[in-house]
Amino acid sequence: MTKKVVIVGASHGGHQSILELLNRYDDVEITLFEAGDFISFMSCGMELYLENKVTDVHDVRNFSPESFPENNVHILSNHLVTAINTTDKTVTVVDQKTQATTIAPYDKLILSSGVTPKSLPVPGADLENVYLMRGLDWATKIKAKLEDPAVKHVTVVGAGYIGIEAAEASRKAGKAVTLLDVIDRPLGAYLDHEMTDILAKHLDEKGVQVITGAKIQAYLGTDHVTAVQTDNEEIATDLVIQAAGVQPNTAWLQGTVALDRRGWIKTDEYLRTNVPDVYAIGDAVLAYSIPAAQPMPIALATVVRREARYLVRHLFEEIPSAPFKGVVGSSALSVFDYHFATSGLNTTTAAKAGVAVKTSFYQDWLRPEYVPVGSDNPEVYVQLLFDPTSHRLLGGAVLSTYDITAQGNVLALAIQQGLRVEDLAEADFFFQPGFDRQWSLLNLAAQHALGEHKF
Predict the structure, then answer these.
(1) What is the pTM assigned to this prediction?
(2) Chain-centroid distance, C-alpha 361
(3) Positions marked active-site
(4) pLDDT band for position 1 (50/70/90)?
């Protein structure tokens, strides 16, 4: 008998869920509802689009409806799911073009409704030229402004990944850029101070004015924004790009699906909600962090795709044969000439999770001393975080002007597998002087963390 699976949301979670369902089952009818009119824009590719590094803006997507020509797959854009009717196992759906309401039955319901960007609740937030850094519509609006010679100055609010991308794209477009954040350093939620100090200096060298500890009080202007008012100063500007975090898109679930006080969907170790046959994955769910051993907000495409893969594998089991193992949480970013990758916990996330960590910061050169210092032998930095007692690896990051971000994948695997600093110190990696040292970079960083004499 054919089983009806309804998916809410067409980003990474929706895409992966369809793939997994088609790979594993022959007797399913899949219906995906997406509230937006475009399936499905990859906001993580927005900087590449803004810097003219993509084929076309409409190509910056996970998939299109045409990606799934199968008769048992139905992908509907502009369809907003407004309610779950738990008694008869249906969802209420509004066609946003015609305003017609339909009822769609399900045997299994997968929620991948994601998050929405935060617009600061300050006066002037509705002024023209106050933009958000997410989605196709905002991407094309920002691109038009970056190409507009009348726009001289851009203020970016938020110095996380998205804010850094917005600042870099704006600077490369020839704009004067001010980057504001309420915390004490750019990328402070992702990297420890040893690395953020390096990147803050580099941002300044590249012409980005970084102002930390800034509390936005208002956006000023009559019809369009002309300045940003902080608690300390007024900053004249032609465009504001807000990148001040996200919030779960879950208000429509209140009273039906259990949410925590911040609106994240509560799930058990099998990704089940409190409602039978209703599951949740993605950015609106707190992902189980392996190094923290508890659920945490980890909004990454890599996370939701792993959740979807697990969920669909066990979707029709009466009792799931195994719980979701969890994720490490790994990401990477370029900041002008620097590239970094981070995995697992940092001191900020560890403190929020109440996890005790010991840290070690290692600085060296990538290749042997007989290779002249410079682009072929750049400075490299490694941060390691580990349990003070067991020495189990809990987090780490790598940074250099040379692209060593693949080392972040090594750290991710080490953390996932529960390796100790001692294991990393003697792990068997290759050596070739055109690439690295006789002891590889992560070997040396781990040996340093153990207090061993420098190689």
Answers:
(1) 0.94
(2) 24
(3) 12, 44
(4) confident
